[in-house]
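Appendix B.2, paired examples.
Example (i):
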Amino acid sequence: MLNAYIKTTEALKRLRTDKDGVVSFEYIIVAACIVAVVIAVFKTDTSISSALAGGITKISAKMAGL
């Protein structure tokens, strides 16, 4: 029982001092914010979404002709 307690305590100490997880979490937050902004722009501004759809259509047509 004491061995399990010591292992758990050591694991929690390593978790508190590990800063890599915090950086990964910050990247996830930034990515979520970027996705939210992109979704908001494409929902409100139809010129951007229609230009993007037109570009994808042209690219698809050119690739289908190859």
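Example (ii):
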Amino acid sequence: MADMLKFVERPQSYPAKRAADARAEDFREIAERYATPAAEDQAGRCSQCGVPYCSVHCPLHNHIPDWLRLTAEGRLREAYELSNATSTMPEICGRICPQDRLCEGNCVIEFSGHGAVTIGSVEKFITDTAWEEGWVEPLVPGPARGQSVGVIGAGPAGLSAAEYLRGHGYEVHVYDRHDRAGGLLTYGIPGFKLEKPVVMRRVERLKAGGIVFHEGFEVGRDATLDELRARHDALLIATGVYKARAIDVSGNDLNGVVAALDYLTASNRKSFGDVVPEFEDGRLNAAGKNVVVIGGGDTAMDCVRTAIRQGATSVKCLYRRDRANMPGSQREVANAEEEGVEFVWLSAPAGFSGADGSATTVRANRMRLGAPDASGRRAPEVDPGAAEDMPADLVIKALGFDAEELPRLWGAPELGVTRWGTVLVDSKTLMTSLDGVFAAGDIVRGASLVVWAIRDGRDVAATMHQHLKAKAKAAKVAA
């Protein structure tokens, strides 16, 4: 039996981070992995509390105290199997989940002042070890049911649902507009947070399990939604939300003012060795430029840290609220500051100006926090007379994402959407307004966390399974 409850005498210790100047030179992940004794030691700090708030606040409700105990006892294979029982991508969640806002932020010993158990780092260690030791088993499809499912979107929600549905014995086809599966895991999140082989090995496992991927496939161009419905017994819409939120200021159409996802996708493609003309000609390359990123979420953090690695002359992040009220991970802010990013708090763009059609300057209003808004957060308002100019050859808009106009793009006006453009679903079945067409992930809930997309994929696979079984039974009775 492991020696647990050692949080008083054993200090919290995360895996060592590479020095800021060294890690800013490449796109490798910034933290090393635990050695086995360190992982066991840190897992042994868990208090094994009666009400595990870490699990309660995990969208997947992972069995965190149980696999921490197994890790502390040196029973790593069992720890992996338990971790894998609730998550299709535990090593990815261990890398990119904002643990400081979820499991670790709600750890009981964090409340006691002793520092949370390093749950994410242990989770990453467990599954990386499982891959190395060959414990990650192939995806084995269930007995063939004679029914097929189409999944539109190869991001975390679509991939998770596809895995579960294949396990139930369905023929599964995944359609995605990109030339590689993974969605934001592949093209949105930089390698210093999630190295791409970690994603690709998951995709290859699904392909080896018989899931058919149709990459470079756009619904509305290569097939209509009705045509896909005719091909399959059920469909899942898991496209995510990719439309960049606009910013209504002068100079928005200048060269050098770009959307965050365009910028990050170009960088990630370069990491794959792709030819990226917009990067090569400098349009989506920060090298030698004064960069200003607008926004305070995790996407903004990805952009500023990418710009540092591309060799920007200077990198500033403008956020309209203060540090305490920003939505991005505080760990990511700290990493960015270590790497040389300057944060300009309580600041928002008033306009962009330039010469010969290209941006050279951001005019920024100073802000102050006024009365609380409907969400309870103090609303930012302009501080009169306190604007300033800052040099900017590259302005990256990282203000979040909205849904694309799927009914129009797909020629499917009967597909019900909300006033925000997200797809309407039944709250219990997750079925859309179209019979046999389901939706899950960000295209339903709006831009959110990867771990929520994985949870949604797991949930929708269960309701689709019930629907397809009922459909098969009805067909058998009718025959």
